[in-house]
Amino acid sequence: MFRNDETPEDMCDCNKILQGDPDEIKHAKILTITKSFRQMTRVTDNQYIKQTENCEHFLRTRKYITFPLSKEEEVFPVAYSIVVHHKVQNFERLLRSIYSPQNLYCIHVDKKAPQSTKTAIGSIISCIKNVFLAGQVEEVVYGSWSRVQADINCMKDLYQVNSKWKYFINLCGQDFPIKTNLEIVRALKSLAGTNSLETQITPAHKVYRWKKSHQVINGRIQTTNQDKSPPPFGMKIFSGGAYIVVSRDFVRYVLEDPEAQVLMSWLNDTYSPDEFIWATMQRIPGVPGFLRAHPKFDVSDVYSISRLIKWAAHEGAFNKVYPACQGIHIRDVCVYGVGDLQWIIKQHHLFANKFDTDFDPIAIRCLERYLRHKALKKSL
């Protein structure tokens, strides 16, 4: 059953947690490993399906913001894609935290996701204005082209459905905002038509990913012995991340430019092409918002505003990039815990990855409260 305002996560003092209070953080960590607490905080797919039978009740009890909080936000709509394959509760809390009715949201649910996941997400978005399912759905395989194609499918839908949005941001189901919608709008306006994404010279240990052909075999991406042809047009391949903040004009280039189509076709059989496609396009002369290919124009994930990610190899000691993860690691990425929040909210990024309601629902709850308080305070 959905709660109105108070939830089990409110058994902790979020203000103290956000200030880094060690006793309150310890209390929260103990709660999150308590079986009864975990059961109280979990919302099942069937519960979402049941609650969304009455959309008005669902939107009211979940406290969705159903009107623009400022004129500045109203006239600067943002387009989002969200690629999701599980954890409906994570997805719904993400959507609620970024939702504003002038924005557009394309949701790509993995073709191989459980039927309960598809039904629950479909039920949720049927209640909410300007949120829709991707018209073409992929069976996403980790490390393969299908992950890029999922975002491109949403780019196509968003580009065609509305001509007013200014910027495109791609998300996954385990992202969470660390800025309000107004703060996001102001950050995007400050880009003045440029883009913000990681783009650097490809490190030596990743070069094989685009020098060898890769194929999906039995649901997994595998390296073959076949050498690929050189990059088209003599392009230099740059490395970055899957997550981007790009202008509408950049999206138009992706969808319509013949050069972009050739590059995408060439990258189709590489390993983890989402790490190369956007980073490379950003360095092509003439692309909207491009950066020159010289190393002095390289942008790391620390400086891009698109995503805050703690990589295990770069965290811990004083001379490392990030403080130690206070949660757990999945595929060398920190899944944030409450102990990370004080650091997170001081960063300049728009979103952080990863969060997990099954691991630490209190971390998400405290971010929700922090962002909602800031958003409503600014609108007064």
UniProtKB/TrEMBL annotation:
It is found in: Golgi apparatus membrane. GO terms for molecular function: beta-1,3-galactosyl-O-glycosyl-glycoprotein beta-1,6-N-acetylglucosaminyltransferase activity. GO terms for cellular component: Golgi membrane. Keywords: Glycoprotein, Glycosyltransferase, Membrane, Signal-anchor, Transferase, Transmembrane, Transmembrane helix. InterPro entries: Glyco_trans_14. It is a single-pass type II membrane protein. Pathway: Protein modification; protein glycosylation. It comes from the Eukaryota. Pfam families: Branch. Coiled coil: none annotated. PANTHER family: BETA-1,3-GALACTOSYL-O-GLYCOSYL-GLYCOPROTEIN BETA-1,6-N-ACETYLGLUCOSAMINYLTRANSFERASE, GLYCOSYLTRANSFERASE 14 FAMILY MEMBER. Belongs to the glycosyltransferase 14 family. This is Beta-1,3-galactosyl-O-glycosyl-glycoprotein beta-1,6-N-acetylglucosaminyltransferase. It comes from Bagarius yarrelli.
